[in-house]
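Box 3.1 A note on notation
Throughout this textbook, protein chains are presented in two layers. The first layer is the amino acid sequence; the second is a token string describing backbone geometry. Keep the layers aligned when reading.
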Amino acid sequence: MITKPFFTGVCTALVTPFLDDKLNYPMLQQLLKRQIDAGIEAVVIAGTTGEAPTLSDDEKLELFHRAKNCVGNQCKIIAGTGCNSTHHTIELSKAAEEAGVDGLLIVSPYYNKATPEGLFAHFLAAAHSVSLPVILYNVPSRTGVDIPVSVYRRLSRVPNIVGVKEASTDISKITRILLECGGGFSVWSGNDEMITPVVSLGGSGVISVVSNVLPTKTQAMAKAALDGDFDTAAALQIGLQPLISQLFCEVSPIPVKEAMRIIGFDCGNCRPPLSPMTESNREKLLQMLLRVLDN
């Protein structure tokens, strides 16, 4: 049983850079270097922010391989391998392990709306298929299913299931997870607006969108909270909240990719069916970034 967090602080859910709808590997290297320079301990490749549903398996595996080769031991590479098919999840997870990644992020099956028993069986089969650390991913606003605490409790006994990215907004649920699953099962916030509250309850940090844009400041907030300096953490959390809200004014990752373009890292447009950001929201985002970057 793993007894310490797989990572603490900030893990960035990295955007996937495109150039003319092809993967932009030079930009990927720039993004990863920027995260490492900011002290970020881990990044997720091909998660929700990385537009996983529009990436082919070959593209995902190439991203996993190149990202790990780029960062070496400076940063953990966590591969997003979950989908709504248990068989496909297992096959992609095995291939990601062969590509050299450090861990897996496995989202709950979407659209199928599995029962608690189905969720347990899905995650158990995926975890048993690899030797890598596995992070569960609960995002009910996208999947249509909220993983019950009872399922977490059972899965927390599986040696290589190390915790959950909890992207529900139920703070009482996070309290119950921490209470019922024990110290070897970490909880990472899946919502940037809840980093400080989750850490204050005993969470291990965040898998973050805003850290694409402001990795140093996001890391400073998480570190302050983990160090028990909640005055500093709260001030940073409140200061970042307007930008965090703007990054979700349209379906993510539309706004964060536009924000990256504005600050000088053109990662291309999102793949269809995600559309370009509206001009009115882009202008609001620009003004918000100008205010935040001035502080």
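The chain is about 45% helix and 15% strand. The mean pLDDT is 96.
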